[in-house]
Specification:
The complex is a heterodimer of chains A (297) and B (309). Chain A has 297 residues and is an all-alpha fold. Chain A has a domain of 206 residues: MetI-like (MetI-like fold), CATH 1.10.3720.10. Helices cover 72% and strands 0% of the residues of chain A. Chain A contains 14 helices and no strands. In chain A, helix 2 runs antiparallel to helix 14, helix 6 packs across helix 9 and helix 12 packs antiparallel against helix 14. The longest helix of chain A has 32 residues. Chain A starts with a helix and ends in a 9-residue tail after the last helix. By secondary structure, chain B is mainly α. The chains are: A mainly alpha (297), B mainly alpha (309). At the A-B interface, helix 2, helix 5, helix 6, helix 7 and helix 8 of A face helix 2, helix 5, helix 6, helix 8 and helix 9 of B.
């Protein structure tokens, strides 16, 4: 009898595991509730941004504030475009500036950081540890505080008031290198060895073996960097109005005060929407990769 | 000439040639790093030992004052020591919480369920919404909402100025019609959590990427061997993400420190009070302390870390 029982429970146990690594209904509900609460806190600001963008002026100033809009309008957006058309630099120019700065800054950083991370993770050479501790040390340093020396350096180089003033420093952030190195370290050495035996050059190994295998890592880095570059107003280095990024012009509007409240709400929506969209595109790619590591041991 | 070159090349051993190639790969980053960051780091150290006066025509003069700035910071400055200790205390509480919370969340988000993309996006939101521009705009929106009517209490205005505060959430939830008792209870419990959640977006992403890179065959083996979910977590998942726990600890420490009050104080000292020397001291001291903490923590974790290979 007892024997039968154990067999039975064993069977039941296995069946349950098949469905979902033995997690109970109650556990699932608890997790769901927890995630729901956490998610609520995260999504609330966004809900507010979206709703604010759709609120007419009188609702924006309502007290106590309401989350949800009663009479949605697109007035704020049309206000914004009127405002934009009044400015003496065309709106498209701001967008172009942002695209250039964000694009080059992001791609350059991902490439440069990955290039540097590969030997740090997978090669042996002198001064490697010193180099790496330099990277970590540089991350400790808050850049808000080193703004003055940074400004001096940029001025000396003569790339002040130029896109390069924002793009070039972005290429050498320590964070990206650190992240890429951590992920590349996890790649099995045998993968690279087999490529080497098949006659691949280091360059070939990097582009055709290493990079595809750490796709989630560099996509993460791209998302991260995009967000940073996107939020850059460049107000410290860029003086010419036609070089300034979108963010700067939008900040001008939000600083406009009460009269421009509607336009400011619309602007906030735009600022938040683009990085979120970029994230959505990238992260669905993160899902598809890395499920198979190309190894058979 | 060509012959000489080949002769020279042959002298290099294989490992030397590999090292050379490694350096070539690193070169672009290293040049940029030395040029932009190493120099500004060096200059900050230099500033911290001197008194900086800006020349009216542009440029600046440095007068070497040895440790005067440090002595002033620790002996005479009104709030530095206190700010430093609270920042450190907050960091020590936050870092483990954030790390484990984000690992937990990453594991949940890594499972397959409907609407996963959406949920992940939601959990990444704080990272995006924390950027300066959005924060500025949000503050404006909030002050509009709370301060639009002049009779609105000063309390609300204060709440509006201090980031995404709890009072604000309470306002929001009560406008949804939830009873106040529940709101207060939840908001009290969540007071700390909301900060942690807001600071853990990047960490969650890093952990998700780490979880993705665990070979599926390992789980298969664990399953065949009859491991329970609990055992699978501790024997497969945890060791495999261990290196990334270090990554995340480092990131969290850096992130929480660069956003801390010490850095704010340093920034104010530089740009409002215009005492660059003192500001450099503030950031230098905090950097050194963070480094020490990191070395300690990473040393402890590294010992227990398992590297796949």
């Amino acid at each position: 009898m007892a024997k039968k029982d154990t067999i039975k429970t064993k069977r039941r146990f296995f069946r349950r595991k098949e469905k979902q690594l033995n997690r109970s209904m109650a556990g699932n509900t608890l997790l769901f509730v927890l995630m729901f609460i956490c998610g609520l806190f995260m999504v609330l600001p966004l809900v507010m941004i979206v709703n604010n963008a759709l609120k007419p002026l009188d609702e924006l100033y309502q007290f106590p504030p309401k989350i949800f809009v009663r009479h949605p309008t697109l007035e704020n957006f049309s206000d914004l475009f009127v405002l934009m058309n009044d400015s003496w630099i065309p709106f498209s120019r701001y967008i172009l500036n942002t695209v250039i700065i964000t694009g080059f800054g992001m791609v350059g950083h991902v490439v440069v950081a990955s290039l540097a991370a590969y030997p740090l993770a997978k090669h042996r050479f002198p001064a490697k540890n010193i180099l790496f501790s330099m990277v970590v040390l540089s991350m400790m340093f808050s850049w808000t505080v080193t703004q003055i020396p940074q400004y001096l350096i940029i001025s000396w180089m003569g790339i002040n008031n130029n896109y390069l003033a924002l793009i070039l420093p972005a290429w050498s952030f320590g964070m990206g290198l650190y992240l890429m190195k951590q992920f590349m370290e996890q790649l099995p050495d045998s993968l690279m060895e087999s490529a080497r035996l098949d006659g691949a050059s280091e360059w070939g190994i990097f582009w055709r073996i290493v990079m595809p295998n750490v796709k989630p890592a560099w996509l993460t880095l791209a998302i991260f960097q995009f967000q940073q570059m996107w939020g850059n107003t460049g107000s410290m280095f860029l003086r010419d109005e036609q070089l300034k990024p979108l963010q700067f012009s939008l900040q001008q509007i939000t600083a406009g005060g009460v009269a421009r409240a509607g336009a400011a709400a619309a602007v906030t929506f735009i600022i938040a929407a683009v990085p979120i969209t970029f994230f959505l595109i990238c992260q669905s790619n993160v899902l598809e990769t890395m499920t198979t590591s190309g190894m058979k041991d | 000439m060509a012959a000489a070159k080949t002769v020279k090349k042959k002298k290099w051993s294989l490992s030397q040639r590999r090292a050379m190639k490694g350096f070539i790969f690193i070169a672009p980053w290293l040049i940029g790093f030395l040029w932009f960051y190493a120099r500004s780091l060096f200059m900050t150290v230099q500033f911290s030992f001197s008194e900086l006066t800006v020349r009216p025509g542009g440029g600046y003069d440095l007068r070497f004052v040895w440790l005067d700035n440090f002595i002033y910071a620790f002996r005479a400055h009104a709030s530095y020591k206190q700010v430093l200790t609270t920042s450190l205390g907050n960091m020590l509480v936050d870092v483990p919480l954030i790390t484990f919370f984000s690992l937990f969340m990453a594991m949940l988000l890594n499972r397959k369920f409907k609407g996963r993309t959406l949920v992940r996006a939601i959990f990444f939101l704080p990272v995006i919404l924390n950027s300066d521009a959005v924060v500025d705009a949000m503050n404006l929106a909030r002050s509009m909402m709370s301060g639009g009517i002049s009779s609105a209490s000063a309390e609300m205005a204060a709440a509006a100025s201090s980031g995404m505060s709890i009072e604000y959430y309470i306002q929001m939830f009560s406008s949804l019609g939830l009873p106040e008792v529940i709101i207060e209870y939840v908001s009290g419990a969540v007071g700390r959590i909301s900060e942690i959640i807001n600071a853990s977006g990047v960490q969650i992403i890093i952990f998700i990427a780490a979880l993705q890179s665990i070979p599926g065959s390992m789980y298969e083996v664990a399953k065949i061997e009859g491991a329970t979910a609990y055992e699978t977590f501790w024997k497969v998942t945890f060791p495999m993400v261990m290196p990334h726990i270090i990554t995340n600890v480092v990131y969290t420490v850096v992130d929480s420190f660069t956003k801390s009050e010490v850095i704010e104080l340093a920034y104010d000292t530089a740009f409002t009070v215009q005492n660059y020397g003192l500001s450099s001291v503030f950031s230098l001291v905090s950097t050194v302390i963070t480094c020490l903490i990191l070395v300690l923590v990473c040393g402890i974790i590294q010992k227990r870390t398992f590297y796949y290979n």
